[in-house]
């Protein structure tokens, strides 16, 4: 058995930060897993970053099943978590059970992630957990609510909004979530929630004090043309790939292209 949800709780108790990254295909999942990432999230950022949509809303459950199966084939050790896409769990508990059940049965992912902490979602988290489906919660900037927020805006910036997010996080822990993503909220709120909860918090744009951090992998690699303000590139793969492609193109066009030295 690789990384488990129980192990992530132990990591928090032991003060060992949790490393989370996104992947949507076999190759990237294999690289991240072999590099020692703890959790691989098949995030619905897939819709925007890899499929070119303006929001995450168009993604279907079939899309997520397809990509999660590919990721799972590349992973030996990390915990694989699959995002439930927009309107595959919000309609009713029964719909959420059906969608999450398909994810675990058909892909081999060990957990699902869903967005929001309002009362109906708490019931959903409770019922999924009771059915043996581990749930990663997600509060703060929840991109599936982009139209309600009026854009991909920072959340929890007023005392009232911060208190609401804190209460949602506490309620999601009580409902049974094994972990919670905190997205694009002030760092002091990230710290406050991380101190209050016993389950691990995973931050993205939520300051350095969360129990773990998640980045969208193409942002870490400097591959995306546009990056959110909290993204932190560790290299510039877009430039590196462009240079490699231009070198190859020049060799082909100038008839200098020879066989690989390994051929
Ligand atoms: O879809 C995604 O990649 C996510 C992360 C940003 C947490 O939900």
**Average pLDDT score:** 97
Oligomer: single chain
C-alpha geometry: globular
Bound molecules: 3-methyl-2-oxobutanoic acid
Class derived from helix and strand content: alpha/beta
Helicity level: 40-55%
The value of Rg in angstroms is 19 Å
Low-confidence stretches: none
Q: Tell me the fraction of residues in β-strands, as a range.
A: 5-15%
Give the SSE string.
HEHEHHEHEHEHHEHEEHH
Rounded to the nearest angstrom, the distance between the terminal CA atoms is: 39 Å
Strands, count:
8
Q: Give the strand order, joined by hyphens, for the main sheet.
A: 1-2-3-4-5-6-7-8
Largest sheet: 8 strands, parallel, barrel
Number of helices: 11
What would your notes on this structure say?
- It is a single chain.
- It contains eleven helices and eight strands.
- It is of the alpha/beta class.
- The model has no long low-confidence stretch (mean pLDDT 97).
- The structure holds 3-methyl-2-oxobutanoic acid.
- 3-methyl-2-oxobutanoic acid binds at residues 22, 41, 43-45, 83, 181, 183, 204, 214, 216.
Q: What is the compact description of this entry?
A:
This protein has 263 residues and is an alpha/beta fold. It contains eleven helices and eight strands.
Top keywords for this entry?
globular, 11 helices, 8-stranded parallel beta barrel, alpha/beta, 263 residues, binds 3-methyl-2-oxobutanoic acid, single chain
SSE arrangement:
Blueprint: H1 5-14, E1 18-22, H2 26-34, E2 39-42, H3 46-49, H4 61-74, E3 79-83, H5 93-107, E4 111-113, H6 119-130, E5 135-140, H7 146-149, H8 159-175, E6 179-183, H9 187-196, E7 201-204, E8 212-215, H10 217-220, H11 237-253
Parallel strand pairs: 1-2, 1-8, 2-3, 3-4, 4-5, 5-6, 6-7, 7-8
The structure holds 3-methyl-2-oxobutanoic acid.
Residues 22, 41, 43-45, 83, 181, 183, 204, 214, 216 line the site of 3-methyl-2-oxobutanoic acid (KIV).
Pathway: Cofactor biosynthesis; (R)-pantothenate biosynthesis; (R)-pantoate from 3-methyl-2-oxobutanoate: step 1/2
Function: Catalyzes the reversible reaction in which hydroxymethyl group from 5,10-methylenetetrahydrofolate is transferred onto alpha-ketoisovalerate to form ketopantoate.
Enzyme class: transferase
């Amino acid at each position: 058995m690789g990384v488990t949800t129980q192990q992530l709780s132990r990591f928090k108790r032991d003060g060992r930060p949790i490393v989370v990254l996104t992947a949507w295909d076999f190759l990237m999942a294999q690289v991240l897993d072999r590099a020692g990432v703890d959790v691989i999230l098949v995030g619905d950022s897939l819709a925007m970053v890899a499929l070119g949509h303006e929001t995450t809303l168009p993604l279907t459950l079939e899309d997520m099943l397809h990509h999660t199966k590919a990721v799972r084939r590349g992973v030996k050790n990390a915990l694989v978590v699959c995002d439930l896409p927009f309107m595959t769990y919000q309609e009713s508990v029964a719909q959420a059970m059906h969608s999450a059940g398909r994810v675990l049965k058909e892909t081999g992912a060990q957990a699902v992630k869903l967005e929001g902490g309002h009362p109906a979602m708490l019931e959903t988290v409770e019922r999924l957990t009771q059915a043996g489906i581990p749930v990663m919660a997600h509060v703060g900037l929840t991109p599936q609510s982009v139209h309600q927020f009026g854009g991909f805006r920072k959340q929890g910036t007023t005392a009232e909004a911060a208190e609401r997010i804190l209460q949602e996080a506490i309620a999601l822990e009580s409902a049974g979530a094994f972990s919670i993503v905190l997205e694009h909220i002030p760092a002091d709120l990230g710290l406050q929630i991380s101190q209050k909860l016993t389950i691990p918090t995973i931050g993205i744009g939520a300051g350095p004090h969360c129990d773990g951090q998640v980045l969208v992998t193409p942002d870490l690699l400097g591959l995306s043309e546009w990056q959110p303000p909290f993204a932190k590139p560790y290299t510039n793969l877009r430039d590196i790939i462009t240079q490699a492609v231009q070198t190859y193109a020049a060799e082909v066009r100038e008839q200098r292209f020879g066989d690989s030295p390994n051929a």
